[in-house]
Design goal:
Strand content: 15-25%
Oligomer: single chain
Low-confidence stretches: 40-44
Distance between the termini: 128 Å
Radius of gyration: 34 Å
């Protein structure tokens, strides 16, 4: 064989080998990896993405925006089109606020043709990303939740997560209504990643708008007053509720410390709780009004019934005295309530008896949720009669040995203020402009008993009363102070250092248009409800009477 023939044979053999390798490669790609490669090619050419629905607005009773949705884009990438992932990540990182290493990892993926870099990016930042003109970086229009008043009513409103669903508060409880129905869009791209065909597989349906019973101006004032209480007494927390007792509409519901709804992550977790429905506490003397109301309704006492009160009273193994030491005294039922006598309230409770007392506690709604349209509502703790100890009727009539929530207390006082009807508090006033029906309520005491209790509670503001220092010119006020020892969780006994200071009252006293509760948990430097909570009640009520144009008494 000549040299030429040998070279031709070698070339033919090499060509045959290459052809064989090509055949094997084609077989491997087509038969073995065909499905996976087809899927990869499809993800690089066809993208199916959700189109977020426009979330419904939340406004106050005057139409003031409390929660809105504004334009925001999702920033995504087609990784195989990004030529320099490291450089692209370095340019995107300062805009998106994401570490460049994290972005580099996403941009370097080759197992997918689509990856999210950031969700719900504000319009101004999205514009900056677009101006970079990085090949393979895409923007998908959407919305993000914004709270125009920042700190206002955050624990009531709640928050929305990056996926567009409510995480807390009304945003969570009414998420299905507010969220609407997301759409779905299919986009086909060419080899350069440019869209060549877009098809809406499902049209997005916007969410419903909610109008709350809250009054933004009043809410702001209440939060300001609580802020002053927080600054002066440095309590663990503070809560206040303003209600229209005639309708049980909640006009304000505030918590301290405040939380910025646009930056909830900056707040400690406990500050995010809506304590108006989530805090349970022993109410102390504010509960005495219900002991007296039950006795009046059952005919066990009248407002003028006289009681000879010793300095202390012994009930089973307990000796109970007054908040301030005193000698023997004679007080009427009205005087007992006005001066917040522990001994007198216990004697009135004993006239009722434990079975009837328990019935009245439950008739006023304690031990069951109020039914308000808010998540996380506690039911409180009310012992059953068969759980009473020998000393229970020395504790319970003065608000010890049971626990309530601030909203339960407010709701129960509304029944005294409105003539005797207990109804569920209302926080949502309208949905998409349609008014929400008001709860009918249940009559629990007569109009006569209601009027008698209101008259007695005026004495709290009279000389010698526990809130005598609080006054609003032109208006008669009624209410009740409360100072309650907290239970020490370590010893199981009442603490001598930690207290709940509270006040619940209404105005004008004869025909109440306004009901206000203030609860301060573990204040420092002062403990009495008449010194801490009652002045806060006065400031809130004075503003509210003017703001709501309630005529003087």
């Amino acid at each position: 064989m000549t040299i030429v023939d040998r070279r031709i044979s070698l070339l033919f053999a090499a060509f045959l080998l290459l052809l064989t390798l090509a055949f094997v490669r084609a077989f491997w790609l087509g038969a073995v990896r065909g499905d996976s490669l087809a899927r990869a090619a499809n993800t690089q050419q066809v993208v199916t993405a959700e189109v977020p629905a426009q979330r419904g607005l939340i406004v106050d009773r005057e139409g003031v925006d409390l929660a809105v949705s504004e334009p925001a884009d999702d920033v995504s990438a087609t990784p195989y089109l990004v030529k320099d992932p490291v450089r692209a990540a370095a340019r995107l990182a300062p805009i998106l606020g994401i570490p460049s290493a994290e972005l580099t990892e996403k941009l370097s993926r080759r197992d997918t043709g689509f990856v999210y870099l950031a969700r719900r990016v504000a319009a101004d930042k999205a514009d900056r990303v677009e101006r970079l003109k990085i090949e393979g970086i895409d923007l998908t229009p959407g919305t993000r939740r914004v709270y125009p008043r920042d700190w206002l009513a955050t624990q009531v409103l709640g928050t929305v997560g990056t996926e567009g669903h409510g995480l807390a508060g009304i945003e969570y409880l009414r998420d299905e209504q507010l969220h609407g129905t997301d759409g779905r869009r299919r986009t086909v791209r060419d080899a350069k990643g440019e869209p060549i065909e877009t098809t809406d597989l499902r049209t997005a349906k916007p969410g419903e708008n909610l109008e709350l019973t809250l009054d933004a101006a009043l809410q702001s004032k209440v939060e300001s007053v609580l802020g002053d209480v927080g600054e002066r007494y440095r309590p663990k927390s503070a809560t206040a509720i303003v209600m229209d007792p005639k309708t049980s509409e909640v006009l304000a519901m505030a918590n301290w410390p405040r939380v910025n709804a646009n930056d909830p992550g900056a707040a400690p977790p406990e500050a995010l709780q809506n304590r108006a429905v989530g805090l349970t506490y022993e109410p102390g003397s504010t509960f005495k009004a219900f002991t007296v109301a039950g006795a009046l309704e059952d005919g066990k006492v009248t407002p003028d019934t006289q009681f000879n009160l010793p300095p202390q009273i012994v009930v089973a193994d307990r000796t109970i005295g007054e908040s301030h030491p005193r000698g023997p005294i004679t007080l009427s039922t009205a005087g007992i309530l006005a001066q917040s006598s522990n001994v007198g309230s216990i004697l009135i409770g004993q006239r009722l008896g434990k079975v009837e007392f328990d019935r009245w506690v439950r008739k006023f709604g304690f031990g069951t949720p109020t039914g308000v349209d808010l998540p996380g509502e506690e039911r409180g703790i009310v012992p059953r009669v068969n759980q009473y100890s020998g000393s229970s009727m020395g504790n319970l009539p003065i608000g010890q040995g049971l626990s309530v929530t601030p909203l339960q207390m407010t709701s129960a006082y509304a029944a005294i203020a409105n003539g005797g009807v207990l109804r569920s508090p209302q926080i949502i006033r309208a949905v998409n402009g349609r008014r929400v029906p008001r709860a009918k309520g249940t009559r629990i005491i007569s109009r006569t008993t209601s009027a008698q209790i209101r008259s007695m509670l005026e004495g709290v503001f009279a000389p010698g009363g526990t809130a005598a220092e609080v006054a609003i010119p032109g208006y008669k006020l009624a209410g009740k102070t409360g100072t309650a020892n907290k239970v020490d969780t370590k010893t199981g006994e009442y603490s001598k250092a930690n207290y709940i200071a509270s006040f619940t009252g209404f105005a004008p006293a004869a025909r109440p248009e306004l009901l206000v509760s203030v609860i301060v948990d573990e204040p420092k430097g002062e403990i009495y409800g008449g010194k801490i909570a009652a002045p806060a009640f006065g400031k809130i009520t004075e503003f509210a009477l003017t703001h709501l144009r309630v005529p003087p008494s």
